[in-house]
Amino acid sequence: MKRPVLFCDFDGTITESDNIVAIMRHFDPPGWKPLVDQVVSGQISIRNGVGRMFELLPSERREEVARFVFDTARIRAGFPELLQYCRDRDIEFLVTSGGIDFFLQPLLEPFPIPQDRIYCNASDFSGERIRIVWPHPCDEHCSNDCGMCKTTVIRRYPQDSYMRILIGDSVTDFAGAQLVDLVYARSHLIDKCEQLGLPYVPFDTFHDVVQHLHTIQEGAQSRE
């Protein structure tokens, strides 16, 4: 049996809602709504749209923005249990997120996830406006201008050696869903999987994911 590896989105997946949209809606800088619409519709790239959204916010509001996310974001039920399940069964778990380090890292700090297994965008507050930094860009096989390129990370785990599993909900997961063996999907990602004819399992909480993972692992072991 190939070793499972999980690539898990953050905004709207680990957390119950999309934190970037929540930030923009709460602080309401002029011009953010068209940028969100253009990213969702594919008119502009994720990197372009997210970078321009955060440039609408002054750097001096860093702590205020981070505090807002920390106080309002909710971790989806079953997340600690999923991490424990992965540890118990030697399943590699990676956070692959289009989110930003300054609000993502504090939310994940209570959980035992190694730093080198958390992939997200970075931030620079040295200028007047918040600048997003992109430490995980697209490789030569991706031209989507993702910002944090999930398919680049996925390709580091060869399909002949790993059962590649993606957990996600929205536009940043669309390309990755087309590469992996199994998708656990919510929200817009369900629509995309239906549209593309991709096999997926819908989920509401991570308890659903653990239950299904256990079922397929038990089935694989019984066939060996």
Automatic annotation (TrEMBL):
It is an enzyme of class 3 (hydrolase). Its EC number is 3.1.3.87. SUPFAM superfamilies: HAD-like. It comes from the Bacteria. InterPro entries: HAD-like_hydrolase_phosphatase, HAD-like_sf, HAD-SF_hydro_IB_MtnX, HAD_hydro_PyrdxlP_Pase-like, HAD_sf. Gene3D superfamilies: 3.90.1470.20, HAD superfamily/HAD-like (3.40.50.1000). Keywords: Amino-acid biosynthesis, Hydrolase, Methionine biosynthesis. Pfam families: HAD. The keyword Amino-acid biosynthesis applies. Belongs to the HAD-like hydrolase superfamily. MtnX family. This is 2-hydroxy-3-keto-5-methylthiopentenyl-1-phosphate phosphatase.
